[in-house]
Each structure stands twice: as C-alpha cells, then as structure tokens.
Amino acid sequence: MPPQSPDPVAIIGASGALGFGLALRLARTGVPVAIGSRDAARAGETAERAAALVPGGSFSGHHNAAAAAAAQTVILSVPFRNQAETLADLREALTPGKLLIDATVPLAAAVAGKATRMLGVWQGSAAQQAQEMAGEGVRVVSALHTVSAASLADLAHPLAQDVLVCGDSRADKREAAALIDRIEGLRCVDCGRLEMARTTEAMTALLISINARYKVHAGVGLTGLPAELWR
Amino acid sequence: MPPQSPDPVAIIGASGALGFGLALRLARTGVPVAIGSRDAARAGETAERAAALVPGGSFSGHHNAAAAAAAQTVILSVPFRNQAETLADLREALTPGKLLIDATVPLAAAVAGKATRMLGVWQGSAAQQAQEMAGEGVRVVSALHTVSAASLADLAHPLAQDVLVCGDSRADKREAAALIDRIEGLRCVDCGRLEMARTTEAMTALLISINARYKVHAGVGLTGLPAELWR
C-alpha cells in the first residue's frame, strides 16, 4: 500500500506573499494545497505559478470560500483590512470541527500607518477576532506571523526559525504544529492561550523594524527549549 | 599604564532577581557596580552576597538615589508597581546626560493579575513612562526584559541569547549595547524606536507562558542577522 497522502490544506489569501510562500513550502512536503483568492481567476493563475515552482506539487485555484470548503484545515493569510470581510465570506465553508490557522497581523499599515506599529483590535488580537467571527465549533489556532514571506517563497533559502503557536486547545495546536513542522527548518513552539497572539502578532511589527534597520529577513529563534516540543 | 577601568554602573533594584543577576554578570567583566535598593541596609547585604559570588568584583551598596548618583549609567530593574515611585525618587540623581536603561516589564502580576498578561500603560510601555518621568536630558534606552533572571544569576549557566534594545537615539542604544555586550553570551539587537518597547516588554510575558509550559528558562534568539550589529 502507498503511504497515506496528507489531507489537503486551504490557504486563504494565497496570492499574497506569505500565503504563496506557505503554499510552495507545504506542497513540497506533499500536502495538496487549495489556493484561495477573492478572485477565482487570480487563484487559478497563482496555482499555475506555484505549480511551475514546485513540480509535482498539487495545487488547485478557487474562490476563497470554495478553497475553504475543500479542506479540513484552513490557513488564513490575508491583510488585516480584509480579515473580517473574508471571515464573513467563509462562514458557510468553515463548518464545525475545521481547523483555522490564523496568520493575520493587525499592522497599522492597514490604515496607512507604519508597518512597525500595531492597531488595537477590540478583541485583543486578530486571532481573537477570528475566533469571535468564525462559527461555533471552528477550532482557531494562531501561528506563522513571524515567518518571513520572502524567505518562504525563496525555495533555495534554508529556513531556521521558530513558529509561535497560540490557541486555547493543546490538541488543536498540536495538529497545526504537525502540519507546519512538515516544512523543513520551521519549529513550532507552544506559546500558550490564544490571547498570547496579542504579542506574537506584534512581533511581526518588531521584526519589520529590525529588518528595516539591518536590511535582512530576520526570524525568531528561542533558546533553552527541550528537544521534544509536542509530546 | 594599566588598561582604563570601565565606568561604574548603578543597578536600581539590584536586590531583585534580574538586577542581582545583572550585577553579578557585569561585575565579572570588570564593571564596578553600585547596588541600589529602597533600603540601604538591604543594598549593603546584597553587595556582600554579590561579592561572595564574584570574588574580585567591585560592589557597593546604596539607597537607590545614592546609587544612581554614583554612576553615569543607571539600569532600572524594579517591579512595575514600583517604577513610577522609584523614578520620582531618582529625579535629583538622574542628571541630564545620564543613560537610563529601563528593564521594567508591566506584567499584570503587578496588580495581582497573571504574569502571562500585560497591563496597558498609558504612555504605551514602561520604557515610555520612564522617559516621561525622567528629567529633561536623561537618555532612555529599553533593554534586558527577555533575559532570564535565573539564568543570569546562575553563573555556571552559559548564556546564548539576544537582548532587544529600543530607543530613540542610535548613539544611546550603541552605548547601552556596548555595556550589555560585555556579558558573554548576550547579543544586543537594535529593535528600533523606544515605542517598540511595547512589544519587547510584552515578550517577557510570552516567555513566561512558554517557560511555564516547557519548564525551562527560554530566551530570545533572532535568526538571519548580520555579524556586525552596531556599526
């Protein structure tokens, strides 16, 4: 028998830089990727572009809602200004039990402010807003904010950084981590409850500040952690 | 001629865990340390305790204000609930031109909340509150929040982590970094303006959450940075 092929993953906003990089990296590990965009034609183009970069990768292009309907795990990777609208569009497709990995960062750039500054989100963080907006039973985990989109999309670039994972259910976080840890060079770290996303999201703005200063794509690495992080 | 001995540094709140660890580590590099406490007798005891751990180290114990008066560089390492009161006490001693390195973290624990949660500080961060309260001409830099007090104080423990430095003057940050970088295993990273302390302070609460989960003393390390950080 062939090894069981992994379940497909939907990436909402996969035409954007972070979503596209994630699509490439996940597909390289054998995960079929349903690419979502607000514009189905653009999703199709993105899927073609991804397939050219990852021969053998499985990509399909869809309108966001159709992409989310096609997978049990949905990664939300849209600009903050589109997060609420996108989640409203996904309400039917995000059925109870699905895993929603929110990677949204409420940068002040969303309202023409600086990318080194954050907006105050009433719920505390974009992840908590996602949890409020997603339907009952959708399992929300926050992750992937601090991973550089440019580094992800550059497949020749070896990754070596931590992914900060927040969520109220350890089982859900473990499931998200098992997916993300397929990508070589990424290591998921359990950062606690979903509310900790207030800080992990803000670390994106901090990295943008550091990147501007040093002209690099910095990543987060934590020291002093045990070898086994998801027992 | 003997090599010039480094200038003394005052550590306000050096009887606390972080301040004490910093006192030990800095003294080991030859920096004379003026240990400040709200209670001069306690400062003297702390100086004796430090001298026993770092033979050859130069320690003196003072009331906070006298410690701050004795050095051009002052590290503020007090619980958030004491920050404003302490800065008011230091107003005379913190003369224009002095460098104030603020390591205060506004954990919700200050008001009997969780140590994984932050208080909202009106100015945006404890560092910005320090800047508002310190007299005109005091140069404020924010640093050292994410360094584990336990790891610092355990002199047998090799350090390997980054120190996130924020401030509005690059020259001031460079000066603070030159001091902190004397400690083997610490690497200072310029994180941008003082307002970025909103996030670097919050990362302490994030590390507390991670530490509780994994029973470790995690530290921050950034990846992808150039070798020379303070040109």
Oligomer: homodimer
Structural class of chain A: alpha/beta
Work out the radius of gyration of chain A. Answer: 16 Å
Largest interface: A-B, 40 and 39 residues
The major pleated sheet of chain A works out as:
8 strands, mixed
- The pLDDT mean of chain A sits at 96
What gap, in angstroms, lies between the N and C termini of chain A? 28 Å
Question: Which overall shape of chain A is indicated by the principal axes computed on the Cα atoms?
Answer: globular
User: Unreliable stretches of chain A, pLDDT < 50, 5 or more residues?
Assistant: none
Give me the side-by-side strand order of the main sheet of chain A. 3-2-1-4-5-6-7-8
**How many beta-strand runs of chain A?**
9
Which strand-content bin applies to the residues of chain A? 15-25%
Number of helices, counting only DSSP H or I runs of 4 residues or more of chain A? 8
Order of helices and strands of chain A: EHEHEHEHEHEHEHEHE
Please bin the fraction of helical residues of chain A: 25-40%
If you had to describe this structure to a student in words, what would you say it looks like?
Two copies of one chain form a homodimer. With 231 residues, chain A is α/β, with parallel strands linked by helices. The first copy, chain A, contains eight helices and nine strands. In chain A, helix 4 runs parallel beside helix 5 (126-133). The model of chain A has no long low-confidence stretch (mean pLDDT 96). The interface between A and B is large, with 40 and 39 residues.
